[in-house]
Amino acid sequence: MKIRDIMTTEVELVHPDTLLRDAAQKMRDVDTGFLPVGEDDRLVGTLTDRDITVRAVAEGHDPKVTRVREAMSDKLVYCMEDQDSSEAAELMAENDIRRLPVLNSDKRLVGVVSLGDLAARTNDDDVVGQTVQDISSSPSNG
């Protein structure tokens, strides 16, 4: 199954100069723990609720003055909308992540695919199960 058929297309994007407090409020309001970070119509990173708590707050940074760019992950891991869902699962397992930004052929953000999307919309329980197992057994999740 192609990523474009299972991805979430309604994606909230945050600018790297946004305050962490505002990004956290956006996460709360749209009920997500993940925001792609964009600047000048390009994906420049990702921000998770874990990034906010572990990279910023736990290190003593005040979310009322700290910017997204200071806590975001700038290692870009993404998939293309025409890739197969099994390739997305492989990327998630290899990179120990549960969500991937989805880009089109112009490298513009068009969606997000999550482990939940793979589980709910594909019939490949083996791939999803193995991906969950790989992510869950990663040392960074312990």
Distance between the termini: 31 Å
> Order of strands across the widest beta sheet?
3-4-5
So how many helices?
Answer: 5
**Overall mean pLDDT:** 87
The main β sheet shows up as: 3 strands, mixed
Which structural category do the helix and sheet elements fall into? alpha+beta
Radius of gyration (CA) equals: 15 Å
Number of strands: 5
DSSP helix fraction: 25-40%
Unreliable residue runs: none
The gross shape turns out to be globular
Give the amount of beta strand, in percent. Answer: 15-25%
Could you spell the SSE succession in H and E letters? HEEHEHEEHH
List the helices and strands and how they pair.
Elements: H1 20-30, E1 34-39, E2 42-48, H2 49-56, E3 79-80, H3 85-95, E4 99-103, E5 109-114, H4 115-121, H5 125-136
Parallel strand pairs: 3-4
Antiparallel strand pairs: 1-2, 4-5
Helix pairs in contact: 3-5
